[in-house]
Amino acid sequence: MATRSTSMTPYLTVFALLIAAASAATTGYHNHTVGGTAGWFFNTTTKTPAANYSSWAATQTFNLGDYLIFNTNSNQTVILTYNKTTYLNCTADDSDNGTFIYSSGSGGFNEALTIPVPLTVVGPNYFFSDASDGVQCQRGLAFEINVQRGLGLPPSLNQPPPPPYIEPPGPDTAQSPPITVAQPPNSGAFASRSDVAVYGFAAALLLMQFR
């Protein structure tokens, strides 16, 4: 005969699974430091990247809402594209809406940078550096990842784009006051032919009196 404590085992197991699932949900978003301790660098003397980034990416699981952290400097660029042709060409095209160039905005050389890049699109995401006319990308400073849905985007990354900027009117563009249009006879939207004839005859009489 089973004891009461034994009969509670399935419920305790389900409870433990629920706790594990809740714990996974609270820690479901991750930061991935690109290249690990090697960072995102390219040796211009040996023409080699600091790490095998494709091998590094193969050890990771990427989900929506995760961040890639690029520890680098201003000698490299960080480009995200969803266009495989752009990735294979190792060239960033400003006219491509699916390509994003991340930078510090500084033109300095050898300036240390940490660039966080959120993952917001499911499927193939391509990263590369187009510095040195694409040589860095061609020599291995590039990698491809496959982003899974996971928990979906967190609220902080799932916001609608801001409305387009509209320049406020200047002081010389004063708005005209509204114009009140008198209603035609019969208070309708359109006057009939007889109404127009009556108004025309009355106007002619008034003109004759002022002569």
Task: Report a brief summary of the structure.
By secondary structure, the protein is of the alpha+beta class.
Task: Please explain how this structure is put together.
This protein has about 210 residues and is α+β, with helices and mostly antiparallel strands. It is about 25% helix and about 20% strand. Strands 4-10-9-6-7 form a five-stranded mixed sheet. The chain has a three-stranded mixed sheet with strand order 1-5-8, with no helix packed on it. A two-stranded antiparallel ribbon has the order 2-3. The protein is globular and about 60 Å long. The model is unreliable at about 1-25 and about 175-210 (pLDDT under 50).
Descriptive keywords:
211 residues, five-stranded mixed beta sheet, 6 helices, 10 strands, 26% helix, disordered N terminus
Helix tally? 6
Assess the beta-strand content as a share of residues: 15-25%
Major β-sheet strand ordering:
4-10-9-6-7
Task: Work out the helicity level.
Answer: 25-40%
Major sheet attributes: 5 strands, mixed
Described by the principal axes of the CA atoms, the overall outline is globular
The class by helix and strand makeup works out as alpha+beta
User: Which residues form runs of ≥5 with pLDDT under 50?
Assistant: 1-26, 176-211
Average pLDDT, rounded to a whole number, is 75
